[in-house]
Amino acid sequence: MELKANLLKLANEWIIAQVEPVEGDTLAGDPDVWLVEPYLVDYEGQLVPWAEHSSEREFNVRSSDITVVTNPSKAILARYIECLE
Q1: CATH for 6-84?
Q2: pLDDT score, position 25
Q3: Terminal Cα-to-Cα distance of the chain (whole angstroms)
Q4: CB under 8 Å to 77, separation ≥6 — which residues?
Q5: Where exactly are the structural domains of the chain?
Q6: How far is C-alpha 72 from the geometric centre of its chain's CA atoms?
Q7: Is pTM beyond 0.70 here?
């Protein structure tokens, strides 16, 4: 099975994560996507857990707070997969 991850810009941070929609209806302004296993991508391309002091690894956020969604480079995706193993 191929891993589907996106590179996102959220609050001036670049994050790589698996993005999944919230099941069911949501109201405008409510969190409507899940970031699963998010990692912060620093300026040198290194990955560190996003919200590293949290015990959670899935975060419910508003898609309206995400300003850019794109595909990660092959190098970043490979590092992300290594982090998940």
Answers
A1: 2.30.30.100
A2: 74
A3: 14
A4: 3, 5, 16
A5: 6-84
A6: 11
A7: yes
